[in-house]
Design goal:
Helix content is 49%, strand content 16%. The chain is built from 13 helices and 12 strands. Helix 1 crosses helix 2, helix 1 packs antiparallel against helix 3 and helix 10 crosses helix 11. It has a 6-stranded parallel β-sheet, with helices on both faces. A 4-stranded antiparallel β-sheet has the order 9-12-10-11, with helices on one face. By secondary structure, the protein is of the alpha/beta class. It folds into 3 domains: 84 residues, Helix Hairpins (Orthogonal Bundle); 124 residues, Rossmann fold (3-Layer(aba) Sandwich); 76 residues, Alpha-Beta Plaits (2-Layer Sandwich), CATH 3.30.70. The N terminus is likely disordered.
Length: 368
Amino acid sequence: MSGARRERPRTPWWTLRLRPSGRAGQSTLTLSPAGPDEPWRRLRGPLLTIVATMILGTLGYMLIEHWSFGDSAYMTLITLATIGYGEVKPLSDLGRIFTSVLILIGVAGLSYTFTTATGTLFEGHLTRQWERRRMEKRVAQLHEHYILCGYGRVGQQIARELLREGETLVVIDNDQHELDRASAAGIPIVNGNASEDDVLRAAGIERAKGLITAVSGDADNTFITISAHALRPDMPIVARVVRDDAAPKLRRAGASHVVSPYAIAGHQMAMLASRSATISALEHLHHDADDLLVEEIRIDTDSALAGLRLGEARGRVSSALVLFGLRRGGQMLAPPPDDLELLAGDIFAACGTRDQLRTLENACEGSR
């Protein structure tokens, strides 16, 4: 019916959630609070106690002394507040006993409320709540950013590299200590389980450039990959893997790239031992060289390079520019042949000076 009134769904105070435990095939069922914010949850009990005492006192005076609602509510208020004003009307013996009990309840309730409110303020609950709201506004303004799931040792190194490249990112973690470290580094944070859709949406997955999941368990990374790929099938996802046999599962779950930090570290150490000069030169080029840069540059649809042979395109840009490879779809051509016809969407992996790379960028962008 068009005129039917739709009811808003109620948010439960507590929810049961099935979370991956980090071990293959195992999950953990946890009971966690949901819905209202934490400061309100802490103050809910004291506030409800005061309201219930007000209602009880008002009804008590109305029944015992047969007073009006206004006189009963006023007498209850000044009694709970222990202001010391005189009685609204003379009290009966039963009314005095009721007032004495009401005073004891009121003093205990106000002390409970004051203690809880003070603890909430000085323990930082309100401060964290304000910080969380400020962070939500900051994340909502981000576009073309990366989402980093997990801020452990691997995640911290990933964040440093992304920041060094001038990229923006958001960190998702459920460890407050790691979140504090990310926040201290000036990185926007989202507290929660990255495998949950609402948490990914809070990190702006609809506007993100890519997602990197670097938590410590293969099961967690798989769940995160499944959730992220379901929300953004077109978004690149880089997943960390601990066990080699988990890599095919992550690819089937939607990961664009699967990386094993242990395998990379082993390969790097072996290469440093066997080809130290070459690896040292590459590391210098990547980290320390200011005159030479390595960049990825995409050919736009209206670029003048689209449709040309690679050899012809070299003549339009600097001949000193080094093209390591060319990515087309999921295939990497390294090195690309000179007779290769360039297409819109191809991505160059190029090395050169800033001026040389800027010339290539302008040629790939085409007319604007």
